[in-house]
Amino acid sequence: MSSFSGALFDIWTVFWRDWVVLKRRMTKFILSRMVAPMLYLVAFGWGLGRSIQVDSGTYLDFLVPGILALNSMNISFNSITPVHAERIYHKSLEEYIIAPIWPPAFVIGKVLAAVLRGLISSAIIFVLALAFGAHFFLTPAFLLVLVLNCAIFAEIGFLAAMKINTYEEMGQVNTYILLPMSFLCGTFFSTHALPDLVRYVIELLPLTHTSYLLRGIGAGQDVAMSSALVLAAYAVVCFLWGCHAFSRLRK
Amino acid sequence: MGTPMMELENLTKQYPHKNASGKNTYKTAVDKLTFSVGKGEAFGLLGPNGAGKTTTIRMLTLLMEPTSGTIRYDGQDARAHAQDIKRLIGVVPQHVNFDQDLTVGENMELHARLHHMGRREREARIHELLHYVELEDVKNDGVRRLSGGMKRRLLIMRALIHHPRVLFLDEPTVALDPQVRRRIWELIRTMKEQGVTVFLTTHYIEEAEALCDRVAMLSQGHLVDLDSPAHFKEKTGLPTLEDVFLKLTGKKVSS
């Protein structure tokens, strides 16, 4: 096996493991992923949304890209965090460390599996949003932004799984990082409503750019390439950092 | 000893540590270990808990980088040829580290895939190994359902899937009843008869005596002495390895 085909085989092996587990739990996974977006759509789209005015279209049209952004973030991040238990408690991660695999293949395989979960979850929201009467354009660029968003937060989840040593601290990443981002990064309202200083900080975060891009592309408007570049930069840096953290486990 | 399969030279591991006054310092877990293990030899590392056995095996299996010192397999430096060496070795860890979300068969398949085995080869090998330890019936069961003895047997079989030339076993029979322990011993002897180099750590004296051609006694990270069980008893005039260990270190192995 050449080194290239060997690396591809390694990526497929890591992905295969997660695919086997996902296939077994597919029904539960799909049903559980419908609950949160359904509640968001009912509460903010139908309920609160009727009394909110936005510049173009309905609040539901404004809301759906934000829900897609935050949901794909949460699903991708949380799909990869079981690696933490594999490292700290079950020690099953050692199987990969002592195996003759290309080390980045482990990171890529895990991230791809988390991206797949993020995309399945996003597909569920598409269907629900259409059922609720939302309008948006689903284009290749829209899908690419979703994939990038899933990859970034899967990589961040991987990094957390490599660096954090307790369950409690893993939970704190959700509480202190993901939850505030879910609400503040242009998901439910425009970042222009925020004070300048807060907005400056919020605009450094990847989810803000995902919300902006999904909303713009979904509405058929032009979007700033700088936001796509920010996401690409986050994806590359987090991937390299994840590979480094994985290699540091042997220290 | 014959031709060396594995050579350790001044192998040392230090961990960051806070001393009693809270100052950051280093604790030496393994201190300048130097010895060789011959091809096809069954070699034991004997010592009480905390002697540095697991740290040593983790460095030898490339799970952990040494602070200093070198490891060579068949003359090749382990650091420079890590991927080649990972193909040579099979590891049975002290803790049961199966993937809890996979079945028995899937755990075996994952290991085979990680060693780049093709579909037909891995299916045949998994069938052969599960049949050998009478675990074929539980192939599609989750690993959580297995008894302690079944898990241990499966751990050994998993380590053998890719035909390793060196088999590492870290406390392979810890917490098992005597009957299961004997069964594991038989498996290890069979591996040795097939030419596999066996390296095991244990704090069971009878295990070291029953299985090992040579035994290294380890205490607080230091190599105290190394010899065959028979020579140890002969040169000290003591009846058991436990007595030899007590005489050499002032401690009981089981302490």
Care to describe what's here?
The complex is a heterodimer of chains A (251) and B (255). With 251 residues, chain A is mainly alpha-helical. Helix content of chain A is 76%, strand content 0%. Chain A contains eleven helices and no strands. In chain A, helix 3 runs antiparallel to helix 8 (167-184) and helix 7 runs antiparallel to helix 10. Chain A starts with a helix and ends with a helix. Chain B is α/β, with parallel strands linked by helices and 255 residues long. In chain B, 36% of the residues lie in helices and 27% in strands. Chain B is built from nine helices and ten strands. Chain B has helices at 53-60, 82-88, 104-114, 119-132, 148-160, 178-193, 205-211, 229-236, 241-249; strands at residues 4-18, 24-38, 42-46, 68-73, 76-77, 89-92, 166-170, 197-202, 214-219, 222-227. In chain B, the strands form two sheets. In chain B, strands 6-7-8-3-9-10 form a six-stranded mixed β-sheet, with helices on both faces. A four-stranded antiparallel β-sheet of chain B has the order 2-1-4-5. In chain B, helix 3 crosses helix 4. The model of chain B has no long low-confidence stretch (mean pLDDT 91). Classes of the chains: A mainly alpha (251), B alpha/beta (255). At the A-B interface, helix 1 and helix 5 of A face helix 2 and helix 3 of B.
